[in-house]
């Protein structure tokens, strides 16, 4: 079936929704003014989108989760009300040659390690995996890229003029950041938050002209030891109070 030069669908519903198995290829399509492009499944199937425009979505430009293998090639994501691209929980993404700009929240969000609707507990099995190569990620409402748990590789991207950080890494995200140009972001270049024992490698990047720091790290180990020390001190104070009450 051909959809060339036709307008289909209804405002407020998903532009494309794929589930229950199979392989989907979307090529040379303009998707606009719907809820989102949704790809979800419980098994590892391949979905590929290329040469498309995804804009003015009521929520995210694209949402993908549940072990779906997703390739995004030469796509323009712009002016979506939430994230431009959402990978996870438990998603797999290859994102290359795209322009991701002027979205309301993160340009690209990948993760799933943290239960954001609960008590911020770590969710085993929620980690995502993504490779981002040769993209332009700019002028998004929060950070250009935000990692929230998983395994990620970021190479050769231009990440600039986002309203928070160029790249934010946290919640046990193993990340390799190489040969990117990260510039003119409002808060700073790269922020490494509470990342537990996950390693972050930064090599060969150009990081310049930010309002804030080029690289900012939160010392998770220091905070952890401080919390343990505080708990131990509180425990000693409680025992001392109990002893005083018993001897009084």
UniProtKB/TrEMBL annotation:
InterPro entries with a match to the protein in the record: Beta_helix (IPR039448), PbH1 (IPR006626), Pectin_lyas_fold (IPR012334), Pectin_lyase_fold/virulence (IPR011050), SCF-Subunits/Alg-Epimerases (IPR051550)
Taxonomic lineage: Eukaryota, Metazoa, Spiralia, Lophotrochozoa, Mollusca
Name of the protein this chain belongs to: Right handed beta helix domain-containing protein
Signal sequence segment: none
Organism, scientific name: Mytilus galloprovincialis (Mediterranean mussel)
Coiled-coil ranges per UniProt: none
Keywords in alphabetical order: Repeat
Domain Right handed beta helix: 48-220
Keyword Repeat belongs to the record: yes
Keyword field contains Flavoprotein: no
Record SMART domains: PbH1
């Amino acid at each position: 079936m051909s959809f060339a030069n036709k307008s289909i669908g209804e405002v407020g519903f998903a532009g494309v929704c794929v589930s229950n198995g199979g392989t989907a290829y979307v090529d040379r399509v303009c998707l606009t003014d719907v809820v989102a492009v949704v790809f979800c499944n419980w098994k590892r199937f391949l979905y590929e989108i290329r040469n498309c425009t995804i804009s003015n979505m009521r929520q995210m430009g694209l949402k993908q989760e549940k072990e779906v293998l997703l390739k995004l090639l030469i796509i323009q994501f712009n002016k979506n009300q939430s994230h431009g691209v959402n990978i996870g929980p438990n998603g797999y993404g290859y994102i290359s040659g795209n322009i991701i700009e002027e979205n309301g929240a993160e340009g690209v969000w990948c993760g799933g390690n943290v239960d954001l609707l609960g008590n911020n507990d770590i969710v085993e099995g929620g980690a995502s995996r993504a490779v981002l190569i040769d993209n332009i990620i700019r002028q998004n409402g929060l950070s250009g890229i935000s990692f929230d748990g998983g395994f990620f590789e970021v190479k050769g991207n231009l990440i600039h003029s986002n309203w928070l950080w160029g790249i934010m890494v946290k919640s046990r995200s193993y990340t390799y950041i190489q040969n990117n140009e990260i510039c003119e972001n409002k808060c700073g270049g790269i922020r490494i938050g509470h990342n537990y024992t996950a390693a972050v490698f930064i090599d060969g990047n150009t990081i310049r002209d930010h309002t804030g720091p080029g690289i900012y790290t939160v010392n998770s180990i220091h905070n952890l030891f401080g919390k343990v020390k505080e708990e131990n001190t509180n425990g000693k104070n409680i025992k001392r109070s109990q002893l005083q009450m018993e001897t009084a």
